[in-house]
TrEMBL record, chain A:
It comes from the Bacteria. GO terms for biological process: L-amino acid transport. This is ABC transporter ATP-binding protein. The keyword Transmembrane does not apply. InterPro entries: AAA+_ATPase, ABC_transporter-like_ATP-bd, ABC_transporter-like_CS, BCAA_Transport_ATP-bd_LivF, P-loop_NTPase. PANTHER family: HIGH-AFFINITY BRANCHED-CHAIN AMINO ACID TRANSPORT ATP-BINDING PROTEIN LIVF. It comes from Streptomyces radicis.
Length: 243, 357
């Protein structure tokens, strides 16, 4: 499935100030959807923040299409093609739905993803153009966060807990969106607590333990083997799997 | 040894909390109602007298309030714009204000061709507008230099930035004293607006209405810029969440630089208006830094709406206190400013439209 690696993370070491969270973390992915699962506090969000340049890299490399982007400023990494859908969505409370997209519209001319294309992908957003970001439902907020990231027209989208707090029908919409993106050549790296949602989005699942990638499974393996779930995901994941 | 703390029943605690929450609202509503009642009916023995007896004086005072608010708004809008996006308290704000005023005065003198006793009749509209643009332009460039040389390396270190810009005000104040002298100077209004007209039997200066016009124009342009252009949307997004703006591939440094340029330009426009209205002299820098601070503390740092509301409230207090306090106490009018600050902060600790920093 994976061709030449789009993203190649090598022996990454990073964290918050003096406390090292990621230690010797390595993985690679092509133009595909890859999930990262693991218990709370294993460093999943830290990994996302490090990939997009919010946190500094102490050691190791982040190769995007063969080019090392580690240590660059967030805007440079975004320019190189990594878009971010952060945990909690981080929409701008001062802006309306349309303004979230309009502020980036200038650089999307002639590209695949324009504000119009985002409205085509998520018609519900089109009905809420004038609403403030904070007045949206959780699902609409997530659609807007994804749409905003798409306007970068990047090569990889990093999503941190996209299904958090969403109704099952909205998760369906997100799962469809992820599949569509991969079909169109955009890679998706998705961090999830909800194993069921993670597996539907990405067939390939990496398990994170104490700041490194400990193992790799297919989604089906993880879903059907309670022993793996207990070992790597803790009790909470059982609930997620059987919900 | 120590008695265990008495536990209030949950319901009673809740009720008390609700009452406590209403307390600040009451604390504001009562003085505001009392002040309105005083001005309307009771203000015997004040320079103006009760508004019901002397509606002309009341109207003129209200006009004074609104027009002074216009000047305050122009002077504070750049300050609040810069703070909102960059969390930089630019203590050199007053210096930019005064420098723009001095430069504009010098430019006007050069354009009119004489250096003292300029009469408004000799001043065409261009002899005011061009110096205004030159003065504000110099303030804009200096502001950008300050940001590029000192502030962009200390991003997020608010105390250092405040101290550095404070140091700059001392340096700039001395240099301006050397260059422009210690005497008060005035920018001369163009003859076209330098008239009086009659409002309810009172003479009123057209220049004050002109100030208000400029303020409204600045406010509308600023609002259009912030709401209708993608740069404005980026600035508002940056006020909310700078990190996320960067993650969208936007070079926030460029946005910062542009904001500082525009904010300093607006400060310069305020300086020229202020110099035309009340003159420029050593010390004007400090008093206008204070004015801007009061406006943004009342209105909430970083909000354009807040700057407008803060200017209006401050303008009302400044205009009404001296004429509606009993004549023997007019001297204490300045204290009312602090009463305004205390009242607003009691109800809204972040200012009227402010959000926690």
């Amino acid at each position: 499935m994976s061709t030449a690696p789009l993203l190649d993370v090598r022996r990454l070491r990073a964290g918050h100030g003096a406390s090292v969270v990621l230690e010797d973390l390595s993985f690679g992915m092509g133009v595909e959807a890859v999930g990262i699962v693991g218990r709370n506090g294993m460093g999943k969000t830290t990994l996302c923040d490090t990939l997009v340049g919010f946190l500094p890299v102490t050691d190791g490399e982040i190769l995007l299409g063969g080019e090392d982007v580690s240590g660059r400023a967030p805007e440079k990494i975004a320019g190189a093609g990594i878009a971010y859908v952060p945990q909690g969505r981080r929409l701008f409370p001062s802006l309306t739905v349309d303004e979230h997209l309009a502020m980036l519209a200038g650089r999307t001319r002639g590209k695949r993803w324009t504000p119009e294309a985002v409205y085509d992908l998520f018609p519900r957003l089109a009905q809420r153009k004038r609403h403030g970001g904070a007045a949206l439902s959780g699902g609409e907020q997530q659609m807007l966060a994804v749409g905003r990231a798409l306007l970068l027209n990047g090569r990889l989208i990093v999503m941190d807990e996209p299904s958090e707090g969403l109704a099952p029908t909205i998760v369906d919409v997100l799962v469809d969106a992820v599949h569509r993106l991969v079909d169109e050549g955009v890679a998706v790296l998705v961090v999830e607590q909800n194993l069921r949602a993670a597996v539907r989005m990405a067939p390939r699942q990496l398990v994170m333990v104490s700041g490194r990638i400990e193992a790799e499974f297919t989604g089906d393996e993880l879903l059907t083997r309670p022993d793996l779930q207990r070992r790597y995901l803790g009790v909470g994941a059982d609930d997620g799997a059987h919900r | 040894m120590t008695a265990p703390p008495r536990q209030l029943p949950a319901a009673a605690t809740k009720e008390w909390r609700a009452r406590l929450r209403r307390l600040p609202v009451l604390a504001v509503a009562i003085p505001v109602a009392a002040a309105a009642l005083w001005v309307a009916f009771l203000a015997e023995g004040t320079p103006a007298g009760p508004a019901t007896d002397n509606p002309g004086k009341f109207l003129v005072t209200a006009l004074d309030a609104v027009t002074f608010a216009g000047l305050l708004f122009v002077a504070a809008s750049g300050f609040t714009l810069i703070f909102g996006l960059m969390r930089t308290v630019n203590m050199a704000h007053g210096s930019l204000f005064l420098l723009a005023a001095y430069i504009a005065i010098r430019t006007q003198e050069a354009m009119v061709g004489r250096s003292r006793n300029i009469e408004p009749a000799h001043v065409g509209m261009l002899d005011w507008l061009v110096p205004m643009l030159v003065g504000a332009g110099v303030a804009a460039v200096l502001g950008l230099l300050i940001q590029q040389l000192f502030l962009q390396w200390t991003e997020g270190q608010e105390l250092r930035q405040a101290l550095m810009t404070l140091a700059l005000t001392v340096v700039l104040a001395d240099q301006m004293l050397r260059e422009f002298g210690g005497l008060a100077q005035t920018m001369v209004w163009p003859g076209a607006v330098s008239h009086f007209f009659s409002v309810a039997g009172e003479r009123y200066a057209l220049t004050r209405v002109f100030i208000l016009g400029v303020a409204v124009l600045v406010g509308v342009l600023l609002w259009l810029w912030l709401t209708r252009t993608s740069m404005g949307m980026v600035i508002r997004a940056g006020v909310d969440d700078r990190g996320m703006v960067r993650a969208l591939g936007i070079n926030i440094r460029l946005v910062f630089a542009l904001t500082f340029l525009v904010g300093s330009f607006l400060t310069g426009v305020g300086g020229v208006l202020g110099a035309s209205f009340a003159g420029a002299a050593p010390g004007t820098d400090g008093s206008w830094l204070l004015n801007a601070l009061i406006v943004v503390i009342v209105g909430g740092l970083g909000s354009l709406k807040g700057a407008a509301a803060g200017s209006l409230l401050y303008g009302v207090v400044v205009a009404f206190s001296p004429v509606y306090l009993p004549s023997d106490y007019s001297y204490y009018a300045i204290i009312m400013t602090f009463a305004l600050l205390a009242l607003v902060l009691a109800v809204r600790p972040n200012g009227l439209f402010g959000r926690p920093a």
